[in-house]
TrEMBL record, chains A, B:
Residues 32-132 form the HTH hxlR-type domain. This is Transcriptional regulator, HxlR family. GO terms for biological process: regulation of DNA-templated transcription. PROSITE patterns: HTH_HXLR (PS51118). Keywords: DNA-binding, Transcription, Transcription regulation. GO terms for molecular function: DNA binding. InterPro entries: ArsR-like_HTH (IPR011991), HTH_HxlR (IPR002577), WH-like_DNA-bd_sf (IPR036388), WH_DNA-bd_sf (IPR036390). PANTHER family: TRANSCRIPTIONAL REGULATOR, MARR FAMILY, TRANSCRIPTIONAL REGULATORY PROTEIN. Pfam families: HxlR.
Length: 143, 143
DNA sequence: CCGGATCCCGAGTGATACTG
DNA sequence: CAGTATCACTCGGGATCCGG
């Protein structure tokens, strides 16, 4: 239980590689604005969390998802899944049985987004205590 | 103005590399929960957008930031910058002059987070029209 | 019984005005 | 210029209801 992280060596290497790159550079202004819009929708707490559990295990039923995505309300789960379906990130399959059974799984597009977010997960895991330390320091600074 | 994307070859390569990786794998449950918390705070629309403009050009004054981060209110700008400062992502420098001058720049930690988000930006730029097409299709599907 | 739609309420967000 | 204060409003969470 001590350590635990455990990413593949490839993931670590990729993260370090990313970290060595220059930051994002600019695009055509019109496209850039569209990209920002898209980022705005996709850079959402619940979207990322849902994406993550679906990336690990898929397909999943609605009820299983609400267990695995810790802290989410049914409302936001439904809502976020709908948006993700609309954006082509997940497919929703309804089985006409009783009791109802609805499964969600990532599309190929969703999988690539999950992979893109991978760097953020690695970052979070690696810098957890750095951030924690920064917070404590900040909170103790004189007002 | 035609095309325009233009990422470095290294960025493209890194993105493709990421996309080829397996999705994030699990950690120690306790740590995983902390990581999720951190993701929750950092995977925020405004945080990403601010991070991006600061990554491109830094340091920036408050007023310049509010111009560059399109659509943000002063309130959310202040609030998000404070949170980012607390998390050790940005440094805030106050010059005791009149009129006031306050500059924000990324810390090294902030730079690495920006780099980690890079994959998402690349994804968004690459899949813009795929998403747009998916939306149109979805919206036209019978109710 | 499961998936999810609806309603209500409190917290968070945005626009505007104001201040050191 | 860089914020804070105020207020109206939207959005998210929880409980409840419902159709298959």
């Amino acid at each position: 239980m001590e350590r635990a992280p455990e990413f593949t060596k490839e993931q670590i290497a990729a993260a370090q590689y990313y970290a060595s790159l220059t930051p994002p550079i600019d695009l055509d202004p019109r496209i850039a604005s569209l990209v920002r819009d898209l980022i705005g929708r996709v850079a959402d707490k619940w979207t990322m969390l849902i994406l993550d559990v679906l990336a690990e295990k898929s397909p999943l039923r609605f009820s299983r998802l609400s267990e695995l995505v810790e802290g989410i309300s049914q409302k936001m789960l439904t809502q976020t899944l709908r948006a993700m379906e609309r954006d082509g990130l997940v497919v929703r399959t309804v089985y006409p049985v009783v009791p109802p059974k609805v499964e969600y799984k990532l599309t190929d597009l969703g999988i690539t987004l999950g992979a893109a977010f991978c760097g953020v997960w690695v970052w979070a895991a690696n810098n957890l205590d750095t951030v924690e330390k920064a917070r404590q320091e900040f909170d103790q600074r004189p007002r």
